[in-house]
Amino acid sequence: MKKNRTVLDASEMEGILKKMADDILNAHERPDTLAMIGIHTRGVFLARRLQALLSRNGTIDIPCGAVDINLYRDDWTRSSLNPVVRKTDITFDVDDRQIILVDDVLYTGRTIRAAMDALMDFGRPARIELAVLVDRGHRELPIAANYTGIYIQTETGEAVNVLLTECDETDRVDVVAGH
Question: Lowest CB count within 10 Å: 33, 111, 118, 170, which one?
Answer without folding.
Answer: 170
